[in-house]
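Handout for the seminar on molecular recognition.
Each group receives one record of this type.
Step one: identify the two inputs.
Step two: read the structure output and locate the region that could contact N-[2-(1H-imidazol-4-yl)ethyl]acetamide.
Step three: write two sentences on what you found, then compare them with the reference statements printed after the record.
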Amino acid sequence: MFTFAAEKKTEMKKFILFIASVLLLSSCGDKQPKGTPSTSEKPNKTVSVPNFNADSAYQYVACQTSFGPRVPETQAHSDCAQWLAAKLGEYADTVIVQDFRAKLYNGKGVEGQNIVGVFHPEAKKRIVLCAHWDSRPYADHDPDAANTHTPIDGANDGASGVGVLMECARQFKLQELPEHLGVDIVLFDLEDYGPHIEEAEKYYDEDVNYWALGSQYWSKHPHVYGYKAYYGILLDMVGGSNPTFPKEYYSQGYAAWVSNKVWRRAADLGYRPYFTNELGALISDDHVPMNQNAGIPTIDIIDLQPESSNECFPEVWHTLNDNIDNIDKTTLGMVGDVLLHVVYEE
Ligand code: AHN
Ligand code: ZN
């Protein structure tokens, strides 16, 4: 078979180089890299943490899918952008819509919009929470060959993470964040416009990432010049039933202390059966440019299914079955609960 394997191999090579350089650096002295908090840092469990409302998060997912597939340069895409920006505007101190142009795998230029909600813009200590809001133009993993050029609803792949973050935004408005803490919610566009599986080999280039175009743009041109955050958390596919969230491999390489903090908190909240203490696959996602280009230690909370017949992803991934009927409120609820605890206790 084709290049998914080849791509993984190159990714793996790059990553091994990266790990080797980290090991080399750390062997030159036992100092921790600058900015890495000591492991003794404890969450501030005395603060009150708002209750994440899973029904509300679900509604935010349903609203997105009701526009239809949010494929760049369609009416559904621009309508949904407008709705997201307006909604986020009700909750955040400021909203910035970042218009950008990017080049697709086929050389065609395309317009994208990253949508950013800023809470406590003056705070120095910041956390960035993100997800992608576009949906894939091709159901290229659909079991029915007749569907493989049809765009998907992306209820899980895209909308679920955005739904959780919109509910977090609503909670940040209802109960103000700690004074010292700023949060930026970044909704990336153009994550999922990589080549159709049938053409992946044709377009393969080890030096170009055709995915995560919105994140690649933002990571080089953040919404605030010179933007830095303490750390970042990306959500991807956080709405399926019976999920498993292992510690994704890049996340563990670039930002182990963030994964460890988040997974510890999830375990304390009783979610250990889902937030498994295992190392997951290497996933090229929006968090990779954030780590590599923006230098923000960022993790990916993503449902990975080692037993899946669809790569290592949930069975509905990149199929027409990735629709609202397959969204489980319980999953949205637990991810949101973990996120609110981590943020308010910071
Ligand atoms: C690729 O398959 C290149 N990346 C997996 C991340 C992804 C795709 N998330 C959603 N869609
Ligand atoms: Zn996808």
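Reference statements: The chain has nine helices and six strands. Residues 157, 192, 194, 211, 236, 283-285 surround N-[2-(1H-imidazol-4-yl)ethyl]acetamide (ligand 1) (CB under 6 Å).
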